[in-house]
Amino acid sequence: MKKQGLFRLRLYLIIMVGILVLFAMLMFIPVDLGPHDNTRMIVDQTYRIYIAPPCYEQTEVTNNLLETTFGSVVESSLQPESACTAEALSTINVTMWSALKERLFPTRWNW
């Protein structure tokens, strides 16, 4: 009986240390985070540029517009319309915990 109790204690200790290591990894290890592939984008087909929705009011574009996703913009040969669009879509360096929260509950690129 005594050996079984000692075994359980060691098992609980190993599990707790594992949880603490996982927690430390989530809180302190930095990762690069970019927009989701399904983030909304606006494309001006005349000028062959793409625009982030928060930057749309600042642009001068034609009426030949198309709504698409960031994933399809990356696959094409389109250029960002301005520094505003490039900055709005730039990757950020965050902790793994923040990246997990952003993937589960999008806020930054949720246009």
UniProtKB/TrEMBL annotation:
<keyword id="KW-1133">Transmembrane helix</keyword>
<keyword id="KW-0812">Transmembrane</keyword>
<feature type="transmembrane region" description="Helical">
    <location>
        <begin position="12"/>
        <end position="31"/>
    </location>
</feature>
<keyword id="KW-0472">Membrane</keyword>
<protein>
    <submittedName>
        <fullName>Uncharacterized protein</fullName>
    </submittedName>
</protein>
